[in-house]
Write a structure and sequence with these properties.
Helix content: 25-40%
CATH class: Mainly Beta
CATH superfamily: B-lactam Antibiotic, Isopenicillin N Synthase, Chain
Order of helices and strands: EHHEHHHEEEEEEHEEEHEH
CATH architecture: Sandwich
Number of helices: 8
Number of strands: 12
Distance between the termini: 32 Å
Radius of gyration: 19 Å
Strand order of the largest sheet: 1-2-8-5-10-3
Largest sheet: 6 strands, mixed
């Protein structure tokens, strides 16, 4: 939460996507402009939209349509894949089980993370290899019912309470015509991340704060569905390896006084603690 931003910036990442495997990418003028925009967005808002990602808008819509169809299934059908600790906290989660205060693919997340590495002044692969280990990802199909469809004792206008995300980077394919995702600026105002067709809305997470030694800070956000229609989103969470020891990287320490502002944390331990406090089983 770096400023009193009033809107979420939009970034065309096509130069980054096109040059991602070019060994001379760091010298490309158009790509460096994308890097500067990513740096500004991560510092100022912690959120940004991306276009030019190479995923067809028709595919993004198809994924949302399939998600809608799943949530329209009878409750008993959805319970067949109920989320449990034994399933690794994967599966269907009914309303009230999550307690918080187009389908993007891993390639797009890696592209953006490489851009963020350059924005921080590091090598393009700074958050790959032994630093992050083999990353893993979580793709969640999320449904937000109309409030009047929820039992009165569970009813609230907040579909997902204010929180920051656990990992590195989140990409969200949200409904084109329902405003519900809100991001809090430095003054405490809630700013709508209004849907922009054909884009993903992205935000940085807790682990990037640690790796960047506080240069980038995750931003509180929430979902408030006041629409008379059921809302869906498809969220892709890009995470470091479960066993990765996350600590401020050297090139970020050098830019922030030469010392680490955050202690080393094993990502899996951080994730498990968050999951245990965020789910009611």
């Amino acid at each position: 939460m770096g400023s009193d931003f009033k809107s979420i910036p939009l970034i065309d990442i096509s130069p980054l996507v096109e040059k991602i495997d070019d060994p001379n990418m760091a010298n490309d003028k158009d790509l460096l402009q994308v890097v500067r925009m990513l740096d500004d967005a991560c510092r100022e808002a912690g959120f940004f939209y991306v276009k030019g990602h190479g995923i067809a808008e028709s595919l993004m819509k198809e994924v949302r349509d399939v998600t809608q169809k799943f949530f329209q299934l009878p409750y008993e059908e959805k319970l067949k894949i109920k989320m449990t600790p034994q399933s690794g906290y994967r599966g269907y989660q009914r309303v009230g089980e999550n307690v918080t205060k187009g389908k993007p693919d891993m390639h797009e997340a890696i592209d953006i993370m490489r851009g963020i590495a350059l924005a921080l002044g590091g090598p393009v692969d700074a958050f790959e290899g032994k630093t992050a280990g083999d990353p893993f990802w979580v793709c969640r199909l999320i449904g937000y019912p109309v409030s009047t469809d929820i039992p009165e004792e569970q009813r609230t206008d907040t579909g997902c309470g204010a929180h920051t995300d656990y990992g590195l980077l989140t990409l969200v394919n949200q409904d084109d015509d329902i405003c519900a995702l809100e991001v809090r600026n430095k003054s405490g105002e809630w700013i709508y991340a209004k849907p922009l067709p054909g884009t993903f809305v992205c935000n940085i997470g807790d682990m990037l704060k640690v790796w960047s030694n506080g240069i980038y800070q995750p931003t509180l956000h929430r979902v408030v569905n006041n629409s008379p229609r059921y809302r869906v989103s498809v969220a892709f969470f890009y995470e470091s390896n479960f066993d990765a020891a996350v600590e401020p990287v050297e090139f970020c320490r050098e830019r922030t006084g030469g010392f680490a502002k955050y202690e080393k944390v094993v990502y899996g331990e951080h994730l498990v603690q968050k999951v245990l406090t965020n789910f009611v089983m």
